[in-house]
């Protein structure tokens, strides 16, 4: 049974929660952090997929920051408007979401414009030629899947250098004091393995980008990670066919902010759902 990469980090966070969501089909109510995360992802996707057209328009190295900011501002607005229904559902307003989102995009616009300026200064290329030779190029939201790893997923962002692919996982929310959260490390390493297979290459490093503090945290991809991930995939697969409820996670902090808390502690209802689930599974055999 092929599983998604995000299930690996969910499993590490709380295996009971993963079970409630995937086996008993319980859903967390929509949260504002989730909506903001989706909006940011969609904007990044939009700016990355429009990058070729934007770079091909460049005919001089002045005013690049203005060009980038204008383009990203328009895309930010479009994505926020597209997500209006969900934004309203979690009681946020469009201008509030813009204020929370635009600083990230503006920073991204300035950084990319600066990179392009440096590349032009070094190579003196413009328009289509500039795009063709430009490194790194950025691929976003790339679907990857592997039969041998029993895994599938969507990689947030990949920086493509002449002979190197560098996956970057973008995360909102609190970052650890140093390094990455364990789930983020595993998720990013799993994407690196999937990309190695897809592009038949070796990936040596990856990053988790913590957007709220604008920091990229480095991960070295080593051969032991493959075994670690294969082991974890097995554990998740076993969890999904369990006939009893997994234990509570034991972390008060996690349970306090968990959207499934009420359902999770309602043993009676959960046992009923378990019975129904087992009945349905038997009928489907
Ligand atoms: S309430 Fe706690 S144990 Fe239950 S699913 Fe949420 S995080 Fe896991």
The portion of residues forming beta strands comes to 15-25%
DSSP E strands, number: 6
Spans where pLDDT lies below 50 across 5 or more residues: none
The ordered H/E elements are EHHHHHHHHEEEHEEHHHH
Shape: globular
User: Radius of gyration over alpha carbons?
Assistant: 21 Å
Number of domains: 2
Could you say which structural class the secondary elements and strand pairing correspond to?
alpha/beta
* Cα end-to-end separation: 15 Å
Which small molecules are bound?
Answer: iron/sulfur cluster
- As a percent range, the share of helical residues equals 55-70%
- In round numbers, the mean pLDDT is 94
Number of helices: 13
Largest sheet: 6 strands, mixed
């Amino acid at each position: 049974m092929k599983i998604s990469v995000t299930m690996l980090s969910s499993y590490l966070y709380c295996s009971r929660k993963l079970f409630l969501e995937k086996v008993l089909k319980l859903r967390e109510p929509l949260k504002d952090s989730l909506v903001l995360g989706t909006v940011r992802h969609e904007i990044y996707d939009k700016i990355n997929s429009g990058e070729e057209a934007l770079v091909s328009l460049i005919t001089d190295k002045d005013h690049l920051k203005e060009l980038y900011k204008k383009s990203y501002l328009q895309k930010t607005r479009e994505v926020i408007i597209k997500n209006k229904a969900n934004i309203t559902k979690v009681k946020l307003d469009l201008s509030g979401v813009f204020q929370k989102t635009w600083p990230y995009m503006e920073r991204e616009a300035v950084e990319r414009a600066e990179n392009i300026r440096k590349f032009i200064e070094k190579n003196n290329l413009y328009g289509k030629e500039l795009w063709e030779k430009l490194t790194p190029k950025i691929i976003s939201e790339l679907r990857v899947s592997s039969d041998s790893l029993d895994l599938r997923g969507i990689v947030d962002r990949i920086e493509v250098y002449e002979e190197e692919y560098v996956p970057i996982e973008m995360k909102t929310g609190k970052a650890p004091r140093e390094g990455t959260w364990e789930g983020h490390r595993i998720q990013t390493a799993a994407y690196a393995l999937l990309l190695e297979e897809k592009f038949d290459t070796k990936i040596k490093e990856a990053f988790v980008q913590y957007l709220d503090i604008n920091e990229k945290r480095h991960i070295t991809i080593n051969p032991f990670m493959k075994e670690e991930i294969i082991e974890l995939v097995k554990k998740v697969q076993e969890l999904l066919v369990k006939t009893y409820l997994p234990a509570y996670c034991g972390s008060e902090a996690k349970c306090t902010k968990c959207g499934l808390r009420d359902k999770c502690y309602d043993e009676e209802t959960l046992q009923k759902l378990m019975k129904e689930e087992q009945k349905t599974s038997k009928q489907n055999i």
